[in-house]
Structures are given as C-alpha cells and as structure tokens.
Fold these 2 entries.
Entry 1:
Amino acid sequence: MAIGKNKRLTKSKKGGRRKAVDPFLKKEWYNLMAPAIFTKKNFGKTIITKTQGIKVASDGLKGRVVELSLADLSAADNKATDKEDMSYRKIKLCVEDVQGYDCLTNFHGMDMTRDKLCSLIKKWQSIIEASVDVRTTDGYVVRMFCIAFTQKHKSQLKKTSYCNSAQGRAIRARMVSVMAEEAGKGDLRSLVRRLIVGEVIGKQIEKATTSIFPIKDCYVRKVKVLKKPKFDVTDLMEWHKNDTEDVGKGVDAPAPGEAEPAEGEALVAGSGGRL
C-alpha cells in the first residue's frame, strides 16, 4: 500500500465501539390495580422507562389501556366452572392515575371473545343486533351493542325460526329502550356491576320481547366509553374504595336509666360517672 493513502487507518480508534448496555436497567415495573368492583385487586404489572430529566415516567403510563379476561379479574378461590362462564368477557381498563408504584385503572370498555360469538351463530335462525348511546348519571357517555337470536315457539314443528322485518324492528326498539333505561338510571359503576354479574340486561330484553317473537342467547356483547367527565381524583378513589371495608364497631345507646354525657364531656370505663 502506498504511503499517504487511506489516512483513516493511521488514526487512533478513540472511543471505538460503545459498550452494550442492557436496556432493562433503565426500566422500572409498576403494579396495575383494578377497581374494587372486581374481586382481584392487583392483576398484573407494566413496564416504563425511568424518569429522566423532564420526561416523567408517570406521564407515559397515564392513558395506557389494558385488555384482559374477566376470569383473570376474579379471585383465585372461585370455582373452575365459574371462571369458564366469565372467560368469554374481555374487559378494558385505562390507567388514570399513578400513586407510588401503583397504577390506578378505570373501566374503559367491554367485549366478547370471537369463539363465544361464533358458537352462538347457527343455521335456521335470525340474528338481531342493536346499539344505543347512553349518558350515565355521573357524566359518562357509553355505546352499548346488543345481540340476540330467534328461537322456535314451544309447540312449533317447522324447522326454521326466522322473524320477519317488522318483528325485527320491534325487537330492536325494545332492545334500545331496555339498554337506555338500565344504563341511564345509575352511574357507570352500577352499570359495570350489572354487566359483569350474570346477563341481567340480556334476560330483561328476552322477557320484554316474548310477546313479539321468542329470542334466546341475548347478550350485551360490547360496551365502549365514548366520553368521560373531567378527571377527578376523588371520583377515581371511589372506584378503588372497597364497599366492604371495616368502618369500626357500632356504639350501643345508653341504658334507659343511664344519663347521657353533656356536650364536651366523656364517660370513661371504671370512672363511676362523668369526668
């Protein structure tokens, strides 16, 4: 090689290759906390890059949406059959606030698994679907989707059980009215409670439409949260407050012959009277 050519070869390799650093050393784990209406409180973990300069870790966590089965949000001591009944429900939870290493989540939506939906669809019957937008009493706007299937009358011999277009419209109108009434009469928490504990709304729709055409397998298959009220920490803490919390022991009323202490005075056990 001629002298003077390829001057880059003569230069010293200052710095050279950077050391390979494990990216997980810059990460930290946070607990995902479900609202109190679900029996399992801590349902998983999520990862985020540690706070560096003006980039705060908690800001990156807020708004994350987690989707999981309703069976995973139920307690471990539940029966296997109960978990199977709940496994077709998919729940979406959104991270709204971060306290320490806990991410407090709120209800964001609900869906049904594809295999459950496919198992309901059969030949010789009509599918009836309806949707409605409802505002709850606490300011949430939710869109609810309902699905149902026609079935034979009790004494029917005919193979098929199709409904005509007028009957379909009447059933859809009943579906919309029942869903609007159930969702509009309470807050979002009470609505979610009715959605996850059995098919309460579905059974009501089946009962309301018996006079039009018999239907079966009626489900609220999907729920979307379209609008939320302005974020309030106290409202979020209401979701995470356990309704069965110990609030102390009740105080018995004084005996009929026993005098009540005056304002600012107190009775002490063994004192023999007022202090």
Entry 2:
Amino acid sequence: MMSKPEEAPESNASIKEVQWTDDSIRWEGGLRVKTAGNDGDGDGDESSGEEDYVIDPFKDPDPFELFSFQFERQDNTSSSSISGSNDEGDKTTSIKIRGYKKDADEVWQSTGLTLWKASDYLCQYQMDNLHIFQSKRILELGAGLGLNGILAWRSTITCPDTEICITDGDSDALVHLRENVERNRTTAEGEVGNISCHQLIWGRTSSEQFLTHIAKNQKYDVIIASDIIYAAVIVEPLWETVRTLLQRPGGGVEGGVLVMAYARRKVPVSIEIVLKKAIECGFVYELVKEDDEEGIWVYTFRFRGEI
C-alpha cells in the first residue's frame, strides 16, 4: 500500500499534516530530484547520482500557467444558485486556477500540480446537474489544483447549506490548492458558501481519523473526483476511503453518490479494475457521460442498499 510519509511541521485542524508527494506511488522509492550543485547525499561522490531521476527545474524559466474557465449552466437551472457575475441573467461561473504547465518538471513529482482533461469534463457534468450539488455536503478526493471542488463551491455559492471540503494527499498540491481557493473568493453580497481544504491520504485508518477530526462524524452526500487513477496500488485505498466517508442509505437517510471522471491515459491500471473493485466493495455504478473519441467517461457510484 502507501509508504509511510514523513511528518511536516505544520498541522491542519486536529490532524497533523505530513510531507508526502504522489511520486512515492508512481516511482519505486519515490522520485529523487537532483539539481545543479546537489550530488544527492552531499558526500561529493558523483556516482551516487546514478540512481537519481535527474530533472532540470530550470528548463522553463516560467513553469506556471494561469488557467481561466467559464462554465455555463443549463437553462433549467435556477439563477439563484449560480455565481461569478452581478448580472442575474448571466449563466456562467468564472474560475481562475494557477498551477504548473503539463510539461513542467515539477509535475513528475506531484501530478496534482497541473490540470488534466477529465477535470474539465467533470465540470461540464457538474454544470449540467447542479441539483446534485445544491445544499449538500461535498467532498473532493485527489483535488490537485482544486478545479472541480472550487466549481462546486462557486456554482452553489448562494445555497446556505452547501459545504465543500477539498482534499489531496500530496502536500505540494495542497499549497497551490489553498492559493486557488483564495484566488476565487469574492466579497459579493449574498455569498454564503462554506469551503475548506485538508490533507487526506487514502485508506481506512486515515479516513476514519478524517471522519472524526475533520468531518466531525458527518458523512458526505456527494464525493467528486477526476483523474485520480494512475496506479493499481491506490484502487483499494480509494474504495476504503469512499466506504468510510460517503453517506450510507438507511433510517430515512438517502445514500450519497460518488461522481468520478476517468480519462484514458498510459497508466498501469484500467477503469475495469476500478469498476470491479467497486462492485466487490458493495457499490453499483452507472455511466452518465461519455466521450469515446476523447476517451473520457463520468461514472456515478452508490451503495447497493445497506452493506
């Protein structure tokens, strides 16, 4: 499963955050970055660098990019639930996201530092189905730069009961995620959206701690995720997390839904593996949006009754 991360000096709420980047999953032993003037262990032995993946962080003098988006709602969506303009007739939500360019060296260590195509595709589904997200407790997993969670927040900003919790396990991505949340704050009258950002490394134990200390034992009505599948080792921890944090049906309470966008990429894990594990964990799924030409799909997952 996931290697034990090192503790970071800063804490978040009642759970101490840790220094962890997702290269520890994608590369055996992690991606060791070697730069000019750094021979790896500092002992002057140049041969020690042979095992390092050498990355030149100075390849691009400006590796950052500001991504600008405008998402349009459907005509049957109430204008009172949309934000981004003072014009009541405006149907768009505007979002600005700052991150690394896709070819930046930093993305090799933390994939969440840039945007991937499934996140944009999931945004389209969100805008077409705003009723799923209005006045709900929403959790985003593996948020990276936070596009989908920020859209869930901005597009329901006037709904007083909507709560958004955006998470990522990668400590580098969390820095940029929090900056992007602040970048999209406004002081417009009537905005009451509740949003927070936290570290969440997937797995049953860490998710139980998250549920107790961060979620205050309140499970989520909606979980969203996009482009989060890139290694087979994360599939089981993913479903352990969803089983722990998604609202179960019963006792007059409607069960929650996971909305996940998946894009075909050259990674050693397929969507079939993810779907098979979902069934084993007691979920049923539905394909709700697809673009076969681009290789992007959106699935919804719900508990199969009481488990």
